[in-house]
Amino acid sequence: MRRIxxxxxxxxxxxAVNDNSPYSFIYEQIEAQKIRVIIVFTPRxxxxxxxxxxxRLNVTDKIWIAGDTWSxxxxxxxxxxxxxxxxxxxxxxxxMTIPGFNDFTYAAINxxxxxxxxxxxxxxxxxxxxxxxxxxxxxxxxxSFPVYAAIYAIAHALHHTLQCGADQCNGTIEVYPYMVxxxxxxxxxxxxxxxxxxxxxxxxxxxxxDIVYWNQTxxxxxxGYYNFHPFVSFFINDSEIQWFSGEVPAARCSDQCKLxxxxxxxxxxxxxxxxxxxxxxxxxxxxxxxxxxxxxxxAEWSAAGSTSCLLRAVEYVxxxxxxxxxxIIGACALxxxxxxxxxxxxxxxxxxxxxSAGGPMCFLIxxxxxxxxxxxFFYFGEPTSSFCTLRILPFVLFYTVCLACFAVRSxxxxxxxxxxxxxxxxxxxxxxxxxxxxxxxxLFVVQAFLLVMSYSRTPPEPYRxxxxxxxxxxxxxxxxxxxxxxxxVLLVTLCTICFVFSYMGKELPKNYNEAKSITFCLxxxxxxxxxxxxxxxxxxxxxxxxxxxxxxxxxxxxxxxWYFLPKGYIIIFQPQKNTQKYFQSLIQNYTKTISQ
Length: 596
Fold this sequence. Notes:
The protein is an alpha+beta fold. It has helices at 23-32, 44-56, 101-111, 133-137, 144-161, 177-185, 322-347, 352-357, 360-372, 385-419, 424-432, 435-457, 485-504, 514-538, 543-573, 580-595, and strands at 37-40, 62-66, 86-93, 188-191, 194-197, 208-214, 220-227, 233-236, 261-265, 273-277, 282-285, 289-295, 300-301, 310-311, 313-315, 461-465, 472-478. Helix 13 packs antiparallel against helix 14. The radius of gyration is 51 Å and the shape is rod-shaped.
């Protein structure tokens, strides 16, 4: 059992047998476990009882490995029904003819009388009733030479212990067993061309085993050998074996697993297992541990049924990517447009169009649009802590100012045309204390405070997304959404208020209706971020960063295209509409319409 512990050999079932063993139960266990090979190390009589039980219980198609105690049995191979049990192979001591043994047996049997005739075999010279010289000579010769060599070895050991010479021994020496044992280990003599020696553990350094096969004629046929001195050599002529199944049988509990499958032991024996496919992200190394699906490292990946892991591809949107270049060009174009629009508005600062658009507030909005676009540049390249911070900070902070300006501007338009006449004191207070600038400053300070608090507690940091895709790592930023919730809530609230006020002023004079333009801009922005949020739910690759930058740019361009550019077009290409007289006529017409 210890010898096979670290080998590929498994014992599915073991049982100690004797004359009273329950053979029927033993064979039931063997059949239940589908065992095909049975190794029998027992005395001769027990082996005979075991094989006879197998014949009686109709145990068939097995491979029997016989020990040297019964492999040369002369009775069993001739037993009726023995061929049905299967194929019998065995090992036996190499049979050597001992010179003079036959003559000695004949002489001893004829001259000596054994008083106790109940003994089947005698360990002394005897003439037992019914025991002929031929029966002794033809009995199992397996141990003839080992017994012969053992007697000579002990004789040599006694010879040396008693310091015997050619004629006599030292009779004064008192012999003890340990003295004989010590000399026995030193044995070194030749017997029938065999060198008789023992190793330090007392095991013989001589001898060999024959591999025998019980052939169809009922004889034990030599088909090979196993020599263990002076070096180990083994040979077996398997062409001489006629297997019960007609072909070489396979004695295994389970077939080997395919590549990429790990063995899962069934029961107590490691040879009995089921095969389990290693899932993605794991692999099995059959040379090191065929029983475990080993997880890949974080930077590695594997498909289902892999025997090794591969390095993951690391992805991020580089500055040199086409999408990055196009978005950066778009951001630069926006900055140039804001500068150009600021110059146009500055030149025409005292005209009705500029004053109706917000006057000095227009320059604040245009400046904040340019500063908000700074965030776009930090969505590309390998993320760093500073890049992660600047992806959201400029946009959220300065976009808050833009929305605050448009919310105040929408409120003022609605207030002038619909509320001022009804609540003159509120209008007076608003104008006296510059309410629009007060609201913008308060919202800016509140948003700045919220951002500083959230970033000081949990600043954005680079993040390796190893979950979204098994074969790649997405380099992105962990913006800590919970920490920035308050800032986002303020931004959404401001956008909602702005949308409500701008929608209330949609029926004001056509060419004097800033509220309608603001409403349309906000509608485009809301639509943009809904589309972006939907894409985020469905997709999580590296291009989500480009889409985020594009959403920011789209929000900023909506104000530029639908609020400022139409006014710039009127200033440059329709100067007749940019007069005080034209605007007063629009207001008068609107007043007449309301009064009717």
